[in-house]
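User:
I study polymers; will you set down one protein's sequence and C-alpha cells?

Assistant:
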Amino acid sequence: MKIGVFGRITDNTDLSNLVNFFTFLRQKEISFLVYRKYAKELFNRIPDQVNPENTRVFSKKEELADCKFIYCFGGDGTVLEAVRFTGRLGVPILGVNFGRLGYLTSISQKGLIQATEKLLKNKYRVDKRSLITVNSDPPGIFGDNKFGMNELTVHKSRTNEMINVHAYINGEFLNSFWGDGIIISTPTGSTAYNLSCGGPIIFPSCATFAITPVAPHALTVRPVVIPDDWVVSLEISARSGEAMVALDNRSELVTAGTSISVQKADFDIKLIRMSTAEHVDNLRKTLMWGTDSRG
C-alpha cells in the first residue's frame, strides 16, 4: 500500500503520535510521500523519523495518482486545502483531527495506527461529498480552482453598510437579500458558516443546497433548501462599490455589479469513514445535544 500525507503542525499536534505513526509505516513497509511544505516542518520536529534522506516528498497532485489513500493531518481547514489541492484526482482522503472541532475529520491523532490497521484490512467506508463550482461575470475569481466543499459566501466588505444580493434559481427571480450577505451551502458546509447564521443542518447524502441570508434586514427572510441540480445566480449591489466573495477558506474582493453563478461540480470528493454512525456522533458531541448545562 502507498499513501500520501498532507498536513500542517497545529497547536494541538502531539509529536509523539507522529513519531509512532511514521515508525509504524516503516515497520509495515507501507510506502508514503509527504507534502513538501509539511515535510519541511517534520524535518525540523521529528528528524529521526522524517528527514530528506529517508522520506519522499511531493508538490504536485499528479504524484499522488498511484496512492491508495491520502492522509490529511490538521483541522477542517486543512482538509479543505487538501480537497482544493487534489481536485479531480479521486483518491480517498482520511482526515485526522489535529485541530479543534473536526467535522470533516474521521479519527483522532491517537487513533492513527489503529485506523491504518483497519485500512490494511479494508475495514472502512467511503463518503462521497458534493462540491459547488463558481463562475463569474467578469470572469476570473478563484482562478482555475473555482470549486468548494463547504460554501460560497457573498458578504459586505465594510462594517457600516448593507449590500443587496439579487438571487435567481434556474433563471427565475427568488429574492433581493438586503443585509450582510448570503451563503450558498453544500450539505457538508451546512455545519459551518451556514449553521452560525441559522441555516439548516443537512446530512451529507442529501442532494440539496441551502441558501441562507446573513443578518437579513427583513425578519421574514428565511433560509431555503433547493435541489443541487439547480443553478443559483447572484447579482451584487453595494453602496461602497465592492463586496467580499468567499469560497470555503479563500476570499476575493469584487466590484458591485459582478454576477456569480453557483452550481454542483461535476465531480465528488471521497472521504474515508471508519464508522457508520460517525456523522451523528459528531453532531451530538460538537453541538452538545442532550447536555444539561443547568448546573
